[in-house]
Design a protein that fits this description.
The protein is mainly alpha-helical and about 240 residues long. It is built from ten helices and no strands. The protein has a domain of about 150 residues. Helix 1 runs parallel beside helix 9 and helix 1 packs antiparallel against helix 10.
């Protein structure tokens, strides 16, 4: 597969949408808001913890992406032009998988942690404020240390990669390690930026902020993006 410079922009744009959409899921920002309220943190400290956890999330995803790029670069040198057709077909197959998952009602695997089920129909924010209120009443005399809370928040995301971004890395294999670095920057900015944005918006007074619907349609959006990107790769491969 020959590197087509015109492909880099749509691949990067897809990466921005995928990373931002993934980070908009309540699991990626609501726990930080609740921890800040429980520990009495200010916005600056909370956003610092968000940035730290988000960076860990990005680094694990990038590590997996590096393995993918390494394998792809090696395979690309062996398969030649055939690699481009395989890459485009793989993106379409991944997109079809996400669409089928959406059709089965599985927008995102983390939804059950923060969705309305089991919380009496409350929105995610309402449910967690409700649970947090009662938890505060039960443990008012035993506040958790900041270190323990921060460690828990870091573990929440640092060991949970953004699986949806891996096909983006796959699409960028043709650009080698330069493409990997660029896409990793895209992943970092979009992920940490979105996490900080939604945390800040909630802390500044948007109490009713409910992005649980984003999670419900995440897989469908991924499916459309990856199929479109796969078709674009195949079209460019046919013209090259």
């Amino acid at each position: 597969m020959v590197a087509q410079p015109e492909l880099l922009a749509p691949i990067a744009a897809t990466g921005v949408v995928v990373a931002f959409l993934h980070a908009a899921i309540p699991t990626h920002w609501l726990p930080f808001v609740l921890a800040a309220r429980g520990q009495g943190w200010g916005r600056v400290r909370t956003l610092g913890v968000v940035a730290l956890a988000g960076t860990g999330h990005v680094l694990l995803t990038a590590l997996l992406g590096a393995f993918l790029v390494f394998a792809g670069v090696e395979a690309g040198g062996t398969l030649g032009r055939t690699f481009g057709w395989l890459a485009g077909g793989a993106l379409i197959a991944v997109g079809a998988y996400y669409l089928s998952r959406q059709a089965r009602g599985g927008g995102h695997g983390h939804v059950h942690l923060f969705g309305g089920h089991g919380h009496g129909g409350h929105t995610p924010a309402e449910s967690h404020r409700h649970d947090h209120h009662h938890g505060a009443e039960r443990g008012a005399a035993r506040p958790r240390s900041d270190v323990a809370v921060i460690a828990g928040l870091l573990a929440l995301l640092a060991f949970s990669p953004c699986e949806g971004f891996l096909p983006v890395y796959g699409a960028g294999i043709v650009f080698g390690w330069t493409g990997f670095i660029l896409l990793s920057c895209v992943l970092a900015v979009a992920t940490v930026g979105a996490m900080a944005l939604f945390t800040w918006l909630t802390m500044t007074g948007l109490e009713g902020l409910d992005l649980s619907r984003v999670a419900r349609w995440e897989a469908g959006v991924y499916g459309v993006l990856f199929i479109g990107l796969g078709l674009l790769v195949l079209i460019n491969e046919g013209w090259s």
